[in-house]
Amino acid sequence: MRWLRRLLIALVAVVAIALVAAYALLRASVPKLDGEVTLDGFSAPVTAERDALGTITITASNRRDAVRALGFVHAQERAFEMDRMRRFAAGELSALFGARALELDKRQRIHRLRSRARVALDRETPEARAELAAYTAGVNAGLAALHARPFPYLLFGAEPEPWRDEDALLVGYAMYFDLHDEDNARELAIGRMRAVLPRAYVDWVFDTTTEFDAPLAGAPRVPVPMPTAAEIDLRAAAAVASLASRDEQPAYGSNNFAVGGALTAHGGAIVENDMHLGLAVPNIWFRARLRYTADDGRTIDVTGVTLPGVPATIVGSNGHVAWGYTNTYGDWLDWIVVRYTDDTRRRYRTPDGDEAVAEHVEAIDVAFHKPERHIVRETRWGPIVHERDDGTALALAWTVHVPEAQNLALAAFERATSAAELVALAQRAGMPPQNVVAGDRDGHVAWTVGGYVPVRAGIDRDAPSPWDAPGTGWLGATPQASRPAIADPPDARIWTANARVADDTGLAAIGDGGYALGLRAKSIRDALAENERFDEQALLAIALDDHVALMSRWHALLTRALEGTDEPALVALRGAIAGFTPHARTDSTSYDDVKAFRAAVIERVRASLAAPMRVHDPAFVLPSLQHVERLAWQLVDERPAHLLAPPYVDWHALIVDAARAVANDAGVAIAERRWGDVNRAAIRHPLSSALPGLRRLLDAPSDPLPGDTLAVRAQGPAFGASERMIVAPGREAHGIFHMPGGQSGHPLSPHYLAGHDAWVRGEPTPFLPGATEHTLRFVAR
Prior knowledge:
With 781 residues, the protein is an alpha+beta fold. 33% of the residues lie in helices and 18% in strands. It has a domain of 182 residues. The chain is built from 22 helices and 26 strands. It has an 11-stranded mixed sheet with strand order 1-26-2-3-6-7-8-9-17-18-22, with helices on one face. The protein has a 5-stranded antiparallel sheet with strand order 23-4-5-24-25. Strand 13 and strand 14 form a beta hairpin. The longest helix is centred in the first third of the chain and has 28 residues. The relative contact order is 0.16. The model has no long low-confidence stretch (mean pLDDT 93).
């Protein structure tokens, strides 16, 4: 047995050596926090200081030096995440991840975004290109200064590719896919339904007007009336074959509100911004304070969040003006009916006669395989995405395809001196169209839609239509003078939360891409109206509101449905919801049951509304509708028999069936379950699913989370405020900031999850960086 003992000792030694070597290799890629770095390109020494949370403060003599240092830090902390974003936008993930990413790459290559990024880059000013080149040089220097490749590259056996200037634009392009539906499913569904169903029915289903609307400009709109039985009768439709998932898909968006100087003790504005996104480790944003001297001699001191890969402050405050965004949910995509003029489908009609379809060969590198050759067919309006049986095709027009839609103009925000100036800059900025809210130290507040806003003419913007007649299609960008905007409203309050913000005039420019339910916007508006004086803490209280008023009516409906029942499961559900309150708190004992009931009813309503289309297409699924609350509640409240498809004999049967599904899903623990048991954080590193043994090292803790996708504190297991900023320009020392996850993408960094616990608890943390704990100095070679 001695030989066996020796063998075991040898095996343990080998494993121990391997673990030590792996740890040493992992440790070798930890970012450099202290000391001195000698690099080419700096005009003067630069310092990069970090506080306890890893927030970086870069002090430089000019912006070019500042972004060179920022690029170095971004690469050291987030090289893999930057690489993943550029590869996603460009359709180049297969070169890193292999064949598993090939189909996604093919979908992305339709948009040819690397080619478009190069075109957009050629449009930049010499100064902007020089700053971008400095940032790129800093990124590549930061990556080269690591003693080992970032750990994901070790796992994939790959080397990181050098950063290129156009990659910054690709990272910006990646955000379009987070904020828009590149499939434009809503418009496709409208077109298909209009072709076979009464227009009155289709218009009612897709009308986003709700009783919760709280627009900034104009009064609430009158909803489209419910269709009559003479117009459509769903009782004649085929039985509902299947139901959609009850997992509510969050609408990626944000909250954003501001109060003017008339409502604050110091006379300056205060701006709040929560950008709601899917959450992962590390967080998408990187906190930074940049201090440098502008070309005109002014000292710039801007604090906020940057997006690794982009040399600009995305959201923040510079002492003069603070700004933030929410997604507009406007209409930024259109389907074009392409009418071919030959049997080979190589030529198509245009306003100037027929034209050849352009063909682009995209070579896709695939790790461990031969490159794939992918052909993209493109019209003058955009790429061809769908070929149709009737001899036509559908091409996609999307703002992401327009050269002006992505640029480096966000850098100018850092130097803005007023809300009015920042709004004007936002209207010229290349970015996904966003609600931009700004407030300045003189008390002014303003709102506009930033980014590229197309002028449409002669087309149906809600359904596919041809653009081959003269004067039709997108006719350039909406002039700044015609952009929807508001400055210093009489009540000194501004709010946006992904719902409709404008009246009919503004809506003509913005369009309707499927607005989010207006509940968050209304809750914010009402909370702002309740007080005449505000400070940062007052706005934080609004931002953390977990009240969901509409749940009260669903609780009442469920209570009525359970009256008199003797089914054991339904009796247990009735007892469980007796203590209901409409607050998404971690200790709420029946909030989840009522929310699950609402979701189950909506699931059945969506299936019923899609039933008449399934007569023509059994696979048809109604796309996600953020306003489905209005449809579902109107139906269960008014109970029109003609708008209920089989198998339900009446609306009461549907409601009880939904309640029964909730009761059966909940099981015996229904009375003990709390909202915090359901709404637990699932904020994961993108590689943790492939490395289950390292999940505790890579993922954030599974904390119970207050809030809900319907609350102002919009929060789900992997969705929520990717940052929270509350700041009065000039009073940044009193500002508040939250961020899930930490600054670093390296699990051995002290800043990997720094600040995450305060985000979970909603505890105020300083907007400005704290005391310096680490200092890195850059000097010219």
